[in-house]
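B., you asked whether I could sanity-check this one before it goes into the benchmark set. Here's the sequence:
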Amino acid sequence: MRGNWKTVALSVLVFASLFVIVRNDSERVGALSYESSSTPVGGIIWENTTWTLESSPYNITATIQIPDNVTLTIEPGVTVISNLGWRQDMFLLNGIIHAHGTADSIITFDGGGDSNFFVGISATKDTFLDLDHCLIKNGLSFFSSDLAQLNLTDSVLENTYEPSGIYPAKHSLIEGNIFKDFCCLSISTGGSYDSSYLEGSVYIRYNLFIGERSFPGYDYYSIVSLGNYGNYTPEPCNLTVEYNSFLKNTKMLKLYPGFDQASMSAPNNYWGTTNTSIIDTKIYDKNDDITCAGFIEYLPLLTEPNPNTPKLLVKANFTYSPSSLYSNIAASFDASSSFGQYSSIANYTWDFGDGTNATSGSPVSTHTYSASGNYNVVLKVTDEFGFTNITTKNLSVIQDNTPPISSHNYDGAWHTSDFTIALSAGDNESGIKEICYRINDGLIQNVSTDGHPFITTERSNNTLEYWSIDNAGNEENHHFLPTIALDKTPPTIVTPLRDPGSDVQPNQLVRISVNVSDSLSGVDSVRLVYFTNRSSIGLEFPIMLNQTSGLYERAILVQEASTLVKYQITAYDRAGNNVTNDNAGEYFVYSVIPEFPSFLILPLFFIATLLAVIIYRRKKERS
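And here's what the prediction gave me:
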């Protein structure tokens, strides 16, 4: 049984592989962009060699060939990149590759999207590929060998697009790895070698398989396949598949048909389900083809992943708002930043620390604390496969006993049109929940739903009562504005009177009197403007109120004979409204009568005297 430290170590490796190049089957993805100061390598290695971290990354420009009895050792942290092109082999192996990384310093093999990683060409059975804490990604076949020993432990294999074939010459171990979007492992016995070469059993244990890649043009590969290709009389290969987790896979285990020596044992695996009907669809054996060597026994099942098998990385994290929490105020908790590396989060379980728990498929939850204090909030996230993670935050909830303070922007002056009084409020603790008000003892309204107070009634004593409430429920003392003044109506000017009302003599004063009234803000001033035919410039004078008559009176200066005078009256109230009475645009008009010429006075005198004598005589004769 593997130790728990393996799981912990592999979690770091999984996280390091989060950002991986992924490609469609129809398109090539090149290697990641590495530093330009890489070390180019290629060709035959004739003696034991070590690739150091100091010289990393290593750029393979021609296939690395390792003869028998030669070992290539690769240090932790080294990166190896293929720049070979389509279907080229990064390593041709007849000797040994020893690549042991660490949980904190993995070794990366990047196939550039189109290269095979390791190909064995054993003439003997001493070929050994020994990989630990490695990341193998973005290539075609991971491993293909006639005879070889393979140890692959605590590593991650991602995005391989062609089958990996293993002919075990010695015991081979594939344990503690994560296979993500991996094509398949094809385990075989026989080949062109007799049974003396086939001493090994293959153990595929404690691995996590998630997703799969179908080899283009073929549909018979499963994640783990076993067949016997012997030309001689081989010994059967003992293949044990145990304590693995199979997730998001449609084809998992297979015995190739037509071979009578293949045997696979697959108990104690986690399938993501206990429904054997579903599991049977993922297994290919004699139940599907009678030419298969036998049946794959997969019982008993695991109802949950083995604790020593790598788990999917599930990250639990949450934020809360507002930043300062108060009792009796709803707080929002958001776990949207939680994620599964290769899965989606199925549910979020909250323990708010006050005895309240909640589980939901939504990452957002709200909660209200009834009392102040310190609370440990625990979030548990569970992904679609049942993998979980938790995180805890200590929150301090405080009590707000201080009411808010409100204010207004009314300037205290008369307004001449409907206007808004803006209300504002401040609260240094839980914050403002609502600003309330009431106009002229009417209905209570809220700024958030009804807008700010809107004054529409013409009067000098509109009233406004206003107050605010904070999020903790504290309500401040109400404020009152008792004299809000609105006057939209201009003053009233009746038709002005003139004295004299008939002809005006030259050099005679003309007195104008007019009744001006305003029922709201009151009359502020009255102005008289008049023009004469002798000037294009008008003259303006104030008209003063006669307290006795209650009329506004003003005299127009004396004018010489034959002067035409036209005038108008303008009145202003205290709110700023004004009105002009100009006799409907015709103005009020009078004329100063002309004087008679002196040469006509004597004739007119004689005529008048003669008429007087005639009238006198006629009266005397009648008497």
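One thing to flag: Residues 1-35, 190-198, 228-236 have pLDDT under 50 and may be disordered. Otherwise nothing jumped out at me.
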